[in-house]
Amino acid sequence: MTVGVLVVDDSATMRGLIAAALKRDPDIEVLGFANDPLEAREQIKKLNPDVVTLDVEMPHMNGIEFLEKIMRLRPMPVVMVSTLTQKGAEITIEALELGAVDCVGKPAPGNGLTPHEAFADLAEKVKAAARARVRPYSGPVAPVERDKNYAAVGELILAIGSSTGGVEALMTILANFPETCPPTVITQHMPATFTKSFAERLNRISGATVAEATDGARLLPGHVYVAPGGAAHLEVISSTHPVCRLRESEPVNGHRPSVDVLFESIAKLNRPSVGVILTGMGRDGAVGLASMRKAGARTLGQDESSCVVYGMPKAAFEIGAVEKQVGLSRMGPAILNVCSATAESQRSV
């Protein structure tokens, strides 16, 4: 199936670079261009594209305002193209929360990216977006009544991996987390500079303290550690107490940080753990989750109907790595229940 794309950007140069990256893939057809949301609205009606690539900052109406209108009135797959700045990252996280399927960073003077590097995986993200389950935007994540009596769970570590659609999934899950949640490590596939803003957003809605992981940070109950994008893999190592380790090495499964690397490090710890694999394109995390389960961990996977892209959870389920599949709306409480049961079983041994 050929994927038809509308490219929306106020820069003619950037429209050309995006189109060139997409046209290298024979399964993608660039249907047309728009230089602002007003023109884009007419082009969507005229061309009926499968996917829209959308710039964040444009004249007449910014990309966020336009995206919200799209997701409320005519939900469709959107891939955001954003500047790799703190402001651009904050806006992009908001876009992903609104329902954009994925994001890529723009090449720009000073960020060290050539157009080829910046848009290397754009075509794959666009094709994944075309297969995504896009839902109407129903408003921000609602406040959650958290369990005030939830107890910290000893030595247990919770590890979560996610990719495409993971922003919505993680926000939904962490909104349920109380101040006494188990130490939690997360690898979410996301460009460098975006993960800090994402961690800050999660911190505002969760009872837990959420931050980007730093090398040597000690894992503590009530804290969530998000792998920084781009430069290193997040692992957990332990001598007397588990700590975060940021290891610079080649991408694994095409990703850095990689979910497989995180899960494999947890499997080697020989301590109680729970692994969770969420929505995402590809297979990253499947083998690592299988290693965790083989080592005695409890494992959960997001079910097909609630995934934006049922790739990573499907791959894990098919090789027997997932003990139980759970819908997103029930995943937060399910994780906490499994963590409590795992800790209790360890205490009774």
Automatic annotation (TrEMBL):
One of its GO terms (cellular component) is cytoplasm. InterPro entries: CheB-like, CheB_C, CheY-like_superfamily, Sig_transdc_resp-reg_Me-estase, Sig_transdc_resp-reg_receiver. Its EC number is 3.1.1.61, 3.5.1.44. One of its GO terms (biological process) is chemotaxis. Residues 151-342 form the CheB-type methylesterase domain. Keywords: Chemotaxis, Cytoplasm, Hydrolase, Phosphoprotein. It catalyses: L-glutaminyl-[protein] + H2O = L-glutamyl-[protein] + NH4(+); [protein]-L-glutamate 5-O-methyl ester + H2O = L-glutamyl-[protein] + methanol + H(+). It comes from the Bacteria. Phosphorylated by CheA. Phosphorylation of the N-terminal regulatory domain activates the methylesterase activity. GO terms for molecular function: phosphorelay response regulator activity; protein-glutamate methylesterase activity; protein-glutamine glutaminase activity. The active site is at S163, H189, D284. It is found in: Cytoplasm. Pfam families: CheB_methylest (PF01339), Response_reg (PF00072). Residues 4-121 form the Response regulatory domain. The keyword Transmembrane does not apply. The modification 4-aspartylphosphate is found at D55. Contains a C-terminal catalytic domain, and an N-terminal region which modulates catalytic activity. Belongs to the CheB family. NCBIfam families: PRK00742.1, PRK12555.1. Involved in chemotaxis. Part of a chemotaxis signal transduction system that modulates chemotaxis in response to various stimuli. Catalyzes the demethylation of specific methylglutamate residues introduced into the chemoreceptors (methyl-accepting chemotaxis proteins or MCP) by CheR. Also mediates the irreversible deamidation of specific glutamine residues to glutamic acid. This is Protein-glutamate methylesterase/protein-glutamine glutaminase. It comes from Phenylobacterium glaciei. The gene is cheB.
